[in-house]
Every structure is written in structure tokens, then in C-alpha cells.
Specification:
This protein is an alpha+beta fold. It has two helices and seven strands; from the N terminus they run βαββββββα.
Length: 183
């Protein structure tokens, strides 16, 4: 049986699949703020537009307390840079004082977008369950963001600035803590 080789087609305007692949960024930092302080700043979605780079709108529409003590928010964020201006909805899960996770719910802009903040007091493991642990003056922050744009154009643009903007986002929250807590 003979193998038939077909010539590959190349389109002038085609964009390779690698441009729409999922992008991820993670960073762990020890900060001079308590778990409660960090949680308070990160969970205050309504204020994001005041300090996050490229965020021009932030609004919480619903805040639903769950039976396990978790709050689930529905929030809208507006982001923009030059010609790109977009708004999208997120489901934000807040587990005080240790976790804030936002998952984009708007399938038009993202195939997937998840931002996760974990806060762990910088105390020995034996003291983590103590009530005062959340007020310890230093805390580990684990920041993870991953996304996959639905649009190849957005995906291509993001390859240029993703790591830089991710670092800027984390730093914006640290700077906000300095402003709020006068440190």
C-alpha cells in the first residue's frame, strides 16, 4: 500500500496554535503583612480599579455566603491597554483568611482564566491552628494565574507582556497593602 503525501497548506493570515496555548505564572513571597491584612486587600474586589495596572473597572454584583463559611462573589472587571478594552465576569471564592480564587465566567474573552491567592502565616506548623496565627506579622503569599484567551489576537498580544503584567499585578497588591496599612 502506497503512502500518499499531501503538501501542507500555509495560509497567509494563519496564527500558530502555540499562540492560544494556556499561559501560567506562579510566585511565592514572604511579606511583612499578616494573613488577615493580605486577605482583606485581595478579597476587596470593588477597589481593584484603584490600583491594579490596566484595570479600569471593578464591581461586585453579588456576595453569597455559603454554609461552610466561604463567600462566593460575582464580579465584573474591566481591563484595557491601548486598543484593547474588555469587560468580563468572574466567580470569586473567598475563604477567610487563607484563600481568594477568581475564575472567569465569561466564555467570550477567555477559554479559561484562574487567579489563586493563598495566604499562610509565617509561623511554625504547630502554631498554624492557633487563633492568633492569622495576625502574625509576616505571611507567605502563593500567587498563581493561568489563562487561555478565546481570541487568537488577544493570545498573540499576551505572549509579549504576560510575565511582566503578572509580576506587576502581584506588586500592585503589595503596594496597596503598604498604602492601606501605612508600612
Amino acid at each position: 500500500m502506497a503512502t500518499i503525501l499531501r503538501p501542507q497548506r500555509r495560509h497567509f493570515f494563519s496564527i500558530p496554535n502555540i499562540l492560544s496555548s494556556k499561559k501560567q505564572y506562579s510566585e511565592r513571597k514572604l511579606l511583612s503583612f499578616s494573613q488577615n491584612q493580605l486577605y482583606t486587600v485581595v478579597s476587596n474586589v470593588d477597589d481593584y480599579y484603584q490600583f491594579i495596572p490596566f484595570c479600569n473597572h471593578s464591581r461586585v454584583y453579588t456576595n453569597t455566603p455559603m454554609s461552610n463559611g466561604t463567600n462566593v462573589l460575582e464580579a465584573e472587571l474591566g481591563v484595557g491597554f491601548k486598543l484593547f478594552q474588555e469587560k468580563y465576569m468572574s466567580k470569586v471564592t473567598c475563604q477567610e483568611p487563607s484563600l481568594v480564587q477568581a475564575v472567569a465566567a465569561d466564555a467570550k474573552l477567555f477559554n479559561d482564566m484562574t487567579t489563586t491567592w493563598k495566604f499562610t502565616p509565617n509561623v511554625p506548623r504547630s502554631k498554624l491552628s492557633m487563633p492568633s496565627a492569622a495576625d502574625h506579622p509576616t505571611c507567605w503569599v502563593d500567587f498563581d494565574i493561568s489563562f487561555d484567551f478565546a481570541s487568537p489576537l488577544h493570545a498573540q498580544a499576551s505572549t509579549v507582556f504576560f510575565d511582566q503584567v503578572s509580576k506587576m499585578m502581584l506588586q500592585a497588591f503589595v503596594d496597596r497593602c503598604h498604602t492601606v496599612y501605612k508600612k
